Inverse folding.
């Protein structure tokens, strides 16, 4: 429980209509569908849970090896293995509904129609607070290449999804855009309620002895502290382009890392790879943000967001 | 399964690059089943982020121990751990080995750290059977005295012949299978390199016996969230599906495993 002194500090945020007790969420693909971490942490202390990417019928994903550890990071090529909409709703939603924490479903598709259909299905599912639209996965051909980096396709997918759901819509932008601001703006114009950035960055590692790629899929996506400065810069740029709130993601290991994103303009953050190092990271980040605010005599988290002095 | 700050009480060199690490872990220790593992955050590992999985060698009286070999960045850094330091653990993880069926003779087959991974199974098995240990050289053969003290007959093979029979562990295993007589129905419990597991699976399939294999896969989260450690497992319809070695495994019945990697 909070003690009386820290109670004066208000960490709650509203991300495109989703009310969160703390701005610290857990990122898609690093937290499974929930039950995996249930024995280890108190879900009610999370800002929100973003579950692993779901497509319509599900898919088996990539061959192994699927992850490789690199300097200050991790390259993954899971290939979006998932049980599909039905499988997820049946097997995991009853579990997730038990907690007092918003559930955001990360969705993807191979075609515009599939994105639409997935969005429409989740619109009917009790307990889903929002949809994070993954147009940026580096591990499937359709992800980044088609939807995430082509402005026309990007707009088509988002507009289509928007027409099919009332849920909070959060496009997750591809990280390697030279014009992140214009994509952010496009997303806002298509009716997005918030933005997530960034996804993992296309990357590769090679075993020099065998001269083989270290991943079964050859290439993957880099995550972890190695990408954080890139992510902070993209969040800062995107924040200047739009009014909708932003969820900063990329290599956050501690409260200072999270604060960097928030000062750059993110209203919330999500913890990804750090969950693997320490499943309690999100709680520690929340506690650290609280003590930072205490130290700086701040009472509301809004006093931090977008305050970078440039 | 829980998170625990364990305290190191003993850290000693065993032989051949293997070290024994004993920890006070009163939370995890009482929950341990044979064949389970802990996911250990190696301190002082700098920019390397991931935990490393280690089979639980012994557990009891609030203590846990692992037997590990230094083979890379993480395990080399672990060498310098001192008694008194704390270690961040998640565990116990995985399903572990089942209890040997009645009317079978348990046969353990181990290579490398498999000897540690099978120790608790050996201690809790209702019947003592045989243990087949393989390694490159005599230094790689661990804990023989301890298995014998529990009442197991240990048969050894090394690649260079410095201990036991010269050759692979399958050499001593096949010899026994050839001699044992039809009344003896073995049930195998195996942990070691994947080719060894496959060899045990082949023998079990040929004889119509059961084999439980503990699969080694690179891990990331260790709890089932990231889908890194997946293994192809047969489905009743003739197809296959991925199972997570950290969650549904590491122990599988060998006939379920698709050995294509
Ligand atoms: C269920 C299980 C139980 C294990 N039990 C033991 C044990 O009791 N004793 C023991 O000595 N070893 C055990 N291992 C192997 C041990 O986890 C690896 O030796 C260790 O992770 C190597 O780390 P490193 O940093 O020294 O090597 P590096 O090669 O530098 O590691 C790089 C990365 O690969 C991963 N990795 C490398 N090899 C393995 C491997 N074989 N399995 C899983 N991940 C790997 C590491 O976690 C790390 O992310 C076990 C592995 C598994 C999966
Ligand atoms: C193993 C793994 C799986 C991931 N799966 C997904 C996914 O299904 N959908 C998605 O949008 N992002 C996925 N991501 C990306 C993360 O949500 C996050 O955007 C990225 O890892 C950067 O944050 P981090 O550095 O804190 O991990 C995955 C990342 C990892 C490491
Ligand atoms: S290591 Fe993450 S699912 Fe097994």
């Amino acid at each position: 429980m909070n003690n009386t002194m820290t109670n004066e500090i208000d960490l709650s945020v509203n991300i495109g209509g989703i009310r969160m007790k703390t701005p610290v969420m857990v990122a898609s693909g690093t937290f499974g569908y929930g039950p995996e971490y249930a024995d280890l942490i108190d879900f009610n202390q999370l800002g929100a849970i973003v579950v692993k990417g779901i497509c319509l019928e599900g898919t088996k994903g990539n061959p192994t090896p699927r992850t490789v550890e690199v300097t200050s990071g991790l390259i993954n090529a899971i290939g979006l293995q998932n049980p599909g909409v039905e499988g997820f709703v049946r097997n995991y939603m009853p579990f997730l509904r038990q907690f007092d924490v918003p559930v955001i479903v990360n969705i993807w598709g191979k075609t515009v129609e599939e994105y639409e259909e997935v969005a429409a299905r989740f619109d009917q599912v009790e307990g889903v607070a929002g949809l994070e639209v993954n147009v940026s996965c580096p591990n499937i051909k359709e992800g980044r290449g088609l939807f995430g980096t082509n402005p026309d396709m990007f707009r088509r997918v988002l507009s289509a999804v928007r027409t099919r759901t009332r849920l909070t819509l959060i496009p997750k932008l591809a990280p390697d855009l030279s014009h992140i601001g214009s994509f952010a703006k496009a997303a806002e114009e298509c009716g997005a309620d918030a933005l997530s950035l960034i996804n993992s960055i296309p990357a590769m590692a090679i075993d020099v002895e065998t001269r083989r790629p270290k991943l079964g899929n050859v290439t993957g996506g880099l995550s972890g502290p190695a990408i954080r400065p890139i992510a902070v810069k993209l969040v800062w740029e995107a924040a200047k382009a739009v009014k909708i709130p932003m969820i900063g993601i990329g290599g956050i290991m501690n409260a200072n890392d999270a604060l960097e994103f928030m000062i750059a303009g993110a209203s919330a953050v999500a913890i990804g790879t750090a969950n693997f190092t320490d499943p309690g990271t999100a709680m520690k980040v929340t506690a650290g943000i609280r003590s930072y605010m205490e130290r700086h005599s701040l009472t509301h988290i809004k006093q931090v967001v977008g305050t970078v002095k440039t | 399964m829980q998170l625990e700050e364990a305290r190191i009480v003993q850290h000693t060199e065993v032989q051949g690059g293997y070290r024994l690490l004993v920890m006070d872990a009163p939370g995890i220790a009482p929950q341990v089943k044979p064949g389970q593992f802990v996911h250990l955050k190696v301190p002082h590992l700098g920019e390397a982020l991931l935990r490393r999985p280690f089979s639980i060698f012994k557990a009891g009286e609030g203590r846990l121990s692992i037997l590990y070999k230094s083979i890379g960045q993480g395990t080399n850094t672990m060498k310098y751990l001192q008694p008194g330091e704390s270690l961040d653990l998640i565990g116990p993880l995985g399903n572990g080995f089942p209890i040997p069926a009645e009317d079978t003779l348990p046969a353990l087959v181990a290579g490398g750290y498999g000897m540690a991974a099978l120790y608790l199974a050996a201690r809790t098995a209702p019947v003592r059977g045989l243990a087949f240990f393989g390694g490159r050289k005599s230094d790689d053969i661990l804990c023989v005295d301890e298995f014998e003290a529990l009442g197991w007959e240990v048969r050894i093979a090394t690649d260079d012949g410095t201990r036991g029979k010269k050759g692979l562990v399958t050499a001593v295993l096949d010899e026994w299978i050839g001699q044992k007589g039809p009344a003896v129905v073995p049930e195998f419990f195996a942990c070691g390199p994947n080719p060894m597991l496959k060899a045990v699976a082949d023998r079990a399939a040929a004889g119509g016996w059961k084999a439980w294999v503990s699969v080694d896969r690179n891990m990331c989260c260790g709890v089932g969230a990231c889908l890194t450690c997946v293994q192809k497992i047969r489905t009743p319809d003739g197809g296959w599906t991925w199972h997570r070695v950290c969650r549904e495994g590491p122990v599988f019945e060998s006939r379920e495993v698709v050995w294509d990697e």
Observations:
- DSSP finds eleven helices and 16 strands in chain A.
- Residues 281-295 of chain A form the longest helix (15 residues).
- Residues B 219-222, 224-229, 244, 246 surround FE2/S2 (inorganic) cluster (ligand 3) (CB under 6 Å).
- The first strand of chain A starts at residue 13 and ends at 15.
